[in-house]
Design a protein that fits this description.
Layout: H1 2-21, H2 23-26, H3 32-46, H4 52-55, E1 68-73, E2 76-84, E3 112-116, E4 127-128, E5 143-154, E6 168-178, E7 192-194, E8 199-202, E9 216-218, E10 223-227, E11 240-242, E12 247-250, E13 264-266, E14 271-272, E15 288-290, E16 313-315, E17 322-324, E18 337-339, E19 344-347, E20 361-363, E21 368-369, E22 371-373, H5 377-383, E23 387-388, E24 395-397, E25 412-413, H6 426-445, H7 453-474
Parallel strand pairs: 2-3, 3-5, 4-5, 5-6, 6-7, 6-8, 7-9, 8-10, 9-11, 10-12, 11-13, 12-14, 13-15, 15-16, 16-18, 17-19, 18-20, 19-21, 20-23, 22-24, 24-25
Antiparallel strand pairs: 1-2
Helix pairs in contact: 6-7
The structure holds 2-acetamido-2-deoxy-beta-D-glucopyranose (3 copies).
One 2-acetamido-2-deoxy-beta-D-glucopyranose binds next to helix 4.
Catalytic activity: L-seryl-[protein] + ATP = O-phospho-L-seryl-[protein] + ADP + H(+); L-threonyl-[protein] + ATP = O-phospho-L-threonyl-[protein] + ADP + H(+)
Organism: Eucalyptus globulus
Pfam families: LRR_14
């Protein structure tokens, strides 16, 4: 026991000595105006009870304020990061009626500003993003984030377009509406642009095509409409493009083929039409192609699918596609999820699908596939309910030695042609297709959580986001 206390004392001394060594910079001053601006800004968000002078006489010092960090500029401390929101136990948590005070815009060395779960009551206390003054932060600001603030309403200020050093702009799951300001498309250094989960309307601006350094574009879960601009072909660095859950219409632009580095293209739940475009073939890095639930139509065989060898997930469910099952799909060696359900597809289902080493979910239900399913008992056993072939009137399975556990759900045995055994109830059908949607994420991300749509996608994505931030920080 005694030894332990000595160890602790020794530890404290070492820490103090180490701290003393770093003392040179600790003793550098922080300009009083900077300190006052910081405290007033924080008080606006967390409430006037918060007295930084009492709690943190030296905000960049040894017991820094959680969510605030500083850097030295010419021997003087300035605030470079301000994160508001309940991230850590002693974070800056917003009050019931937080406000933006103009003092935020006096922190002219800020590189990163973020608000998480701060403005939460759209009824009692709706808050607008200040429409002006952002230009004051233009020389320094590299990352601006608003996440999960349903009480943040009004439009995205067009003066965000003045933040020329911005590398990451994230406005995710807030209450913002109105059009997307076109001048965001002229931010020359932007690598990540996330405007998902708001109520944005109007068209995607052509100007976005100028974001040639952009790696991630997420405009999902808004009410964006109109045709997709061919300018999207200018996003040549893009890795992820998520436009899902909007009201977008018209054809898939041919220019998508220019996105050679794109790994994810998610446009599910829109109103896209006009058939698949052949240029998708040239998106050689594509791993996930999700176009489900769009009236796309046309023939599935227009593409030579085997050219997309990186594909891990292909979801073309409910897209009005026609044509026979293309053998080229069964040559996609990396495929884990294949969704072709509820289309007008016909012909024979290629037994080679079972030879794909990673195949984990296969939905072919609700089509006009015919003939005999030639998969083994082992395959049905492995896939379980992730094999969907019901609602194909001309399809049957070979009964020999199949136990009731290892037979395809809702498909009749070939020996009993015309007699539909095991017809699924409508509830089972619904459940089946819903499971299909969720399973996609498990299949494509190797994640065993039932994420469910949008959140399921972004959850595992956070790691990547963190890595990107690291890149952003390093490059300063
Ligand atoms: C904060 O505390 C200091 C020192 O106790 C005091 O002088 C100052 O008036 C207080 N400020 C506010 C806003 O309460
Ligand atoms: C695409 O990715 C490759 C390899 O990561 C990289 O070298 C190349 O610069 C990228 N292309 C663009 C246009 O960013
Ligand atoms: C289904 O396929 C059969 C045989 O190929 C064909 O005769 C029939 O018209 C098709 N039905 C539909 C609804 O497409």
């Amino acid at each position: 026991m005694k030894n332990l206390s000595w160890l602790i004392i020794l530890g404290v001394c070492l820490a103090a000595a180490w701290h003393g060594e770093a003392g040179d910079t600790d003793e550098a001053p922080m300009a009083e105006t900077e300190r006052q601006s910081l405290y007033s800004a924080i008080q606006g968000f967390v409430g006037s009870w918060w007295n930084g002078s009492d709690l943190y006489p030296d905000p960049c010092g040894w017991t820094p304020i959680q969510g605030v960090s500083c850097d030295l500029f010419d021997g003087v401390w300035y605030v470079t990061t301000l994160n508001v929101g309940p991230v850590h136990e002693n974070s800056l948590v917003c009050s019931a009626n937080p406000v933006f005070t103009p003092h935020v815009f006096k922190l002219t060395h800020l590189k990163s500003l973020s608000f998480f779960g701060c403005f939460v009551s759209p009824r009692q206390n709706p808050v607008m993003v200040p429409p002006e003054s952002w230009g004051n932060l233009a020389d320094s600001l590299e990352s601006l984030e608003f996440r999960s603030n349903p009480g943040l309403v009004g439009q995205i200020p067009s003066c965000f377009g003045q933040l020329v050093n911005l590398q990451s702009l994230v406005i995710l799951e807030n209450g913002l509406s109105g059009n997307v300001p076109p001048n965001i498309g002229s931010l020359p250094n932007l690598k990540r642009l996330v405007l998902g989960g708001n109520s944005l309307t109007g068209w995607i601006p052509d100007s976005f095509g100028g974001l040639s350094k952009l790696l991630i574009l997420d405009l999902s879960s808004n009410s964006l409409s109109g045709p997709l601009t061919s300018a999207l072909g200018g996003l040549t660095s893009l890795l992820k493009l998520d436009l899902s859950n909007n009201l977008l219409e018209g054809k898939l632009p041919m220019e998508l083929g220019k996105l050679k580095n794109l790994t994810l293209l998610d446009m599910r739940n829109n109103k896209l039409s006009g058939g698949l475009t052949r240029s998708l073939e040239s998106m050689c890095s594509l791993q996930e192609l999700i176009l489900a639930n769009n009236p796309i139509g046309g023939d599935l065989r227009i593409l030579e699918w085997e050219k997309l060898q990186g594909l891990v997930a292909l979801d073309l469910s409910q897209t009005g596609l026609t044509g026979d099952f293309p053998k080229s799909i069964s040559k996609l060696k990396n495929l884990r999820f294949l969704g072709l359900s509820n289309n007008h597809l016909g012909g024979h289902i290629s037994p080679e699908l079972a030879t794909l080493p990673s195949i984990n979910a296969l939905y072919l239900n609700g089509n006009n596939f015919t003939g005999e399913l030639e998969f083994s008992k082992w395959f049905y056993g492995k896939m379980e309910r992730r094999f969907g072939a019901w609602d194909n009137p001309g399809l049957c399975y070979r009964t020999e030695s199949l136990s009731t556990r290892h037979k395809p759900f809702g498909v009749k045995p070939c020996q009993e042609q015309g007699i539909v055994v095991d017809k699924p109830t409508s509830e089972a059908k619904l459940g089946g297709s819903r499971v299909g949607q969720n399973v996609h994420f498990m299949a494509s991300l190797g994640c065993s959580r039932h994420g469910g749509g949008y959140y399921g996608f972004w959850g595992p994505f956070l790691l990547e986001v963190a890595m990107l931030l690291l890149i952003v920080v390093k490059s300063c």
